[in-house]
Amino acid sequence: MSGFSAEWLALREPVDHRARNPAVEETALEMFDGREIANILDLGCGSGSNLRALAPRLPKIQSWRLVDHDPALLAAARAALSAWAETAETEADGALRLEKDGKTIFVDFEEADLARDLDRALSGEIDLVTAAAFFDLAAATWIACFCAALVERELPLYTVLTYDGVEVWRPPHPADEAMLAAFHAHQATDKGFGPAAGPGAMSCLIEAFEKAGWEIQIGQSAWMLGAADSALIAMLAEGSAGAVAETGRVPAADVASWLAARRGASACAIGHEDFFARPTTEPFVG
Ligand SMILES: C[S@@+](CC[C@H](N)C(=O)[O-])C[C@H]1O[C@@H](n2cnc3c(N)ncnc32)[C@H](O)[C@@H]1O
Questions:
Q1: Structural domain of residue 29, as residue ranges?
Q2: Quick check: is 234 in a domain?
Q3: Of all atoms in ligand 1, which is nearest to the CA of residue 131?
């Protein structure tokens, strides 16, 4: 399993939502202008944050397929979406039918390991493939295969909040540089897809779609955390320190001192990027 808890995902959800890049989102969703229906596939859906962010900007009728390998998170997604909607009914096939702000949203939940079951995930009717905070977990080789599969099917991709490796914590701490280097070494370990691309994931996406001649758009979506985000800052510091300790690259005393300072950091910025790719829209030449 991934080790992502529903509590962690709930804590980061409001910060994720405010960090999303509006320009990339606008381009990604313009295909739905004037349309009544959208069919969306969300990869590594966790507890459904990506749906809650995008549903208000999508057509009146939406059909979502939420894919994750963690059954506990899929159950958390069902519960969180039911609580978020005005009404929630379970259909005969197990899908949820939600009503929210004048939209009807059908949600299918699918347990699948995307490292192995990609073809199955990409089957069926899909207008847009999306994912949030997902691609840094995947291996460069897997990302290349994934992009090739989208190119073959001409499926556009909109992915948000891919970690880009840039971190600034305030006030500074003498162990910042060593901690970040060790954290990135941990990021490169296998998260279920082979050695993870970590902060290199965005370059893998760009390279694959540029090679295919697709149109792409990239935008910053950094977390800018301050005093109001102290719970998230503390949990982030604990997660980073735990990952660094596993690498054995930083003396334990330095990790402890960094963590003690970072739990109460006054501010930090964690770099992310959003990305959209679609087949080039050639002007028609008659
Ligand atoms: C950082 S969380 C992001 C969750 C959600 N997209 C969000 O923004 O809150 C990464 C998600 O990817 C899922 N995941 C990781 N590896 C996976 C795999 N091999 N197959 C399917 N899902 C996977 C995890 O279970 C987790 O829900």
A1: 6-164+194-224+271-278
A2: no
A3: 6
Structure confidence at residue 3 (pLDDT): 78
Q: Could you report the average pLDDT of every consecutive run of 10 residues in the chain (286 residues)? A: 84 97 98 97 98 98 98 98 98 96 98 97 97 98 98 98 95 95 96 96 98 97 95 94 96 97 93 97 64
pLDDT tens across 87-134, in order? 999 999 999 999 999 999 999 999 999 999 999 999 999 999 999 999
CATH number of the domain at 122, please: 3.40.50.150
113 lines ligand 1 (CB under 6 A): yes
The alpha carbon of 45 and the centre of ligand 1 are apart by a number of angstroms equal to: 6
Beta bridge partners of 97: 89, 106
What is the average pLDDT score of the chain? 96
Ligand 1 lined by 78 (C-beta under 6 Å): no
Number of domains in the chain: 1
Check residue 284 and give its pLDDT: 60
> How close is the Cα of 173 to the center of ligand 1, in Å?
31
Task: Kindly state if the Cβ of 221 falls inside 6 Å of ligand 1.
Answer: no
Residue 229 belongs to a domain: no
Looking at residue 282, what is its pLDDT? Answer: 67
User: Does residue 219 lie in a domain region?
Assistant: yes
Residue 230 lies in a domain: no
